[in-house]
Each structure stands twice: as C-alpha cells, then as structure tokens.
Amino acid sequence: MKFLKKNIFLFLSLFLLVVIILGYFLNKESSSSKKNEISNFAQQLKIRNNQIAKIQQNLFLKGKDINELINEDQIDFRKIIENQILVDFNGYNFSKKKINENLLEGYLFSKFSTNDILFTGNIGASATAFIDFYNQDKNIILATYDGIFAKAKISTPEKFTKIPSNIKELIKYKKFYTHDHYGIKDILVDKDILYVSYIGQKIKDCFDLKIISANLNDNYLNFDLFYQTKDCVNVKNNHGFWAHQGAGGRLAKIDNSNLLFTTGDFRNRPLAQNQNNEFGKIIIINTKNRKSNIISIGHRNPQGLYYSENFDFIISTEHGPKGGDEINLNHRPLTKIKNFGWPISSYGEHYAKNYSKKILDEAPLRKSHKKYGFEEPIKYFDPSIGISQLISLNDNDYEFFVGAMGNEIKEQDLGVHYIKLDKSRKKIVQHNYIPLNERVRDIVISEDKNIILLFLETTSSIAILEKIEKD
Question: Which residues of 408-442 are buried (b: 16+ CB within 10 A; e: fewer)?
Fold first, then answer.
C-alpha cells in the first residue's frame, strides 16, 4: 500500500505540474481565462483525489487490498474505478433515500442514489449520466458519459443491469473515457432505436459531434454511426476552444422521420453566425437519408430541446457565458432560419475582463437581440443557473420544467424551474423555482405525462416524480 500511495502521490503531483505548464502556454491572449482554466483543473484534480481516498476506504472495509485489483506497475484511474466501483459487473445498485415526499405540489418524490458511477470532470458533480424511457415507459435506460449503458424496470429502480455494447470499437480516443467534457452528451429512444450523441475526434486535435444508433436490445447494443458534423473544430484555432462549455449535443424528436440536434460553438464564437458550418446551430436530421438542414443559428451551447408537434414550435435552453442563460422560442421553425444572436448579442459577460480586441470585436455581447435583428429570448438568467434540459408537463405545451445545474441555491441553481406560457405560447406568465440541492443534468417525462425522471449529478442519483391522482 505504501508503494501504491507513493505512486499515486507522484502521479497527482506530475499531473498538476503538467496542468500548470499547459495552462501557461494555452490562451496566451487572456491571462484571466488562463487562470480560470488552471483553477478548474486544480479543482477537478482535488475531486479525483478525494474519490481515490473513498475507493481505498471502501476496499479496506471489505477486507481487500487495492494492490489485488490493479497492476502494481501502473496506475490507471479508469481501471481503479471499474474494478472497485463496478464490482458487480452486472449492474448498478441504487439505494432508496427518500420516498413519497411531497416536495413538489402534485407529485410524489422518490430519490435513489448510487456510488457505482464516479469521476466526472464537473466541479460539484459526482457523476454525469443521461436517462430515457423505453418499452412503453416500463423501463429506464441510463448512459454514463463514458459509454456504459444500464437498464432497470421503472417498478424497481434500485437495480440497474449493465447492457454490453460495441461502443469501444467505434470510439477509440482516450479523452472520451476519462473526462465527461468529451463524453456522451445525450440519449434519445425513438421507435425502439437508441440514439447517442457525443463529442468525436475527427482527426488529432480536431473535434466534431457525432450520433450513433442501435436497435434497443436488452442483451447487446450494436451501434453504428448515424450522423456526424461535416467539419470539426481544431483545438489550435485562432478564436478559442473549450469542449465543456460549448458542445451542445441535445436530441429531440420532431416527427416520425426527423430528429432535432443542437450543436455548440466549442467557444470558437464566429462559427455560430456562419451558415457554412453546423456549429452553434439547431439542425434537423432526416432519419431515412440522414441529410441535415439548419433550423436556427446564433447559439452558444444549447442544452435543452423540445418540439411541440401540436403547436409547431421549438423551445430550447442555452448556456450563456458569465450570466445570460436563455430560454428561447422558435415558432414555425421550418419556415425560415432564425438567428438567436450569439455571439453578437448576449445578456451575459465574458469570463475574462482583458480579452483581446479581436475577441471583443467577434463577440461584443450587446445587451439587446431585437435591436440587431435577432430573436429575443423569452427569459434570460443573470446570474446563470447552469440551465439544462426541459420537458413539457402536458399535451397543451404551455407548462414546462427546466433543469438547473450550477452550484448556488441562492442563485436558483441546483433545482427545477417551473415556467408557464401564455395562451399564444409566446411569453412566460408564471415562473417558480423549486430547490433540490442537486445539479439536474437530465430530465425526461413518460408519454402519458405521469412520471418524470431526473438524473441528479451532485450525488449520482435518480429522482422519480409521480403525478398524484386527484380524487
């Protein structure tokens, strides 16, 4: 153990040194941005160090030695996690925390947490995963950011069984499996087909967005490439790059033959206003011929997506920079390409105060959209709430739950926002905040609108909201 601990310490020290050196040479035009990224990496390193300590403690309680589980000649953080946290290779075990608590009016609230999914890159988050219903809403499918799939019955959410897949044959670059910044971004079940979006590596240091699909099979998921963006964003471009705050990747069904797909700008801001690429856009993809068209441009990092088939509008959410998270409406979205303004207009601010003139000219962040010919958000949040996915609560499509991540209750992060639209579905007439003290990464609703699932990444938990039947 002493030998192992010494090697762990040396690894962490070397890792931190590399981060500091890289931070010095990256983003030379902005020292503040450089410091922010170094600070973020340092926080992530601390999180991983704490998780290693928890693994060692769990092994000790089970009378095991960590040296029995890993090769003494190397320390592979993913291997430590797989052998310890996923000891039961058949599934994830969720323990029930709260049941039938009237936390949300009209719903019963249940929460199930697990220690079987770890190592996210997000500060304040224990794990990142995405969820959906399948089998006529009788089952749940879960996908971790690094490509592990599991299933459970809605009636017994304590036990998730892993579903093997061929994902490692398709996705071979290491960052996908070691950091959620480069992992899975969403899943969608449609007509017994599972769609999975993720950040792909087209060539070295050049990243794109891809969608793979598989027939939904409880025994094995055999994925094939379904769609990929035509271009990729190079890490060494002259405008900036950050996968974490700029990927998008949200999926939604629009009709029986088409899907909606959001893409971010990867912090290469000018891409969002350029219609010759697919970044910073919401696009429509035909599931038959797999051809795509742009629905809207001027997006930074769209995180939530829903299409109302009954009333023909898209409602989407979007991360702003420092402040300026948005909720946007696009009525009759197939009639013309709408422009939502980024990076010309935003109600947020740049993270750094001393960006170069070039960046400020590319992204002036003007405090009006309409004045410059863009679509105004129906709501923006300043400070940001870390906005995420949204769902429609009924077939009339005027009431929605919107997830919030972030880290501050006082800023209305860590919970769910309820919004109600007017009869024309063009403006918000009611807004309430429901604190959960959890980062709501994903949220889905059953077809009959009676059951809501949330993935809470602060504690790696699944919450279930069941509508209370009125007498």
Answer: eeeebbbbbbbbebeeebeeeeeeeeeebebbbbb
Per-residue pLDDT of 250-266, as tens digits, reads 999 999 999 999 999 99
Tokens at 222, concatenated: 């055999």
pLDDT in tens, 337-378: 999 999 999 999 998 888 888 889 999 999 999 999 999 999
Token digits for 301? 């990092």
Contact (Cβ atoms closer than 8 angstroms) between residue 52 and residue 46: no
CA dihedral 314→316→320→325, nearest 10 degrees, is: 110
**Selection from 287, 277, 283, 286 nearest residue 302 by Cα:** 283
Distance CA 302, CA 295 (A): 13
Beta bridge pairs of residue 144? 129
Tokens encoding 279:
């970044």
Q: Is the peptide bond before 435 cis (omega within 30 degrees of 0)?
A: no
Query: Is pLDDT larger for residue 112 or for residue 317?
Result: 317
Burial class from Cβ neighbours inside 10 Å (0-12, 13-18, 19+) for residue 466 reads middle
Closest CA relative to residue 186, chosen from 263, 112, 131: 131
Of 365, 374, 435, the residue nearest 109 (C-alpha): 435
Please give the C-alpha separations between residue 366 and each of 267, 324, 360, in angstroms, as whole numbers.
Answer: 17, 11, 11
The separation between CA 264 and the C-alpha centre of its own chain, rounded to angstroms, equals 12
**Does residue 148 come out as left (phi exceeding 0), alpha (psi in the -120 to 50 range) or beta?**
beta
Residues 6+ away with beta carbon under 8 Å from 272: 265, 279, 280, 281, 297, 298, 299, 300, 342, 343
Task: Name the pTM for this structure.
Answer: 0.81
Q: Is the dihedral of CA 266, 44, 211, 340 positive or negative?
A: negative
Per-residue confidence (pLDDT) for residue 174, from 0 to 100: 85
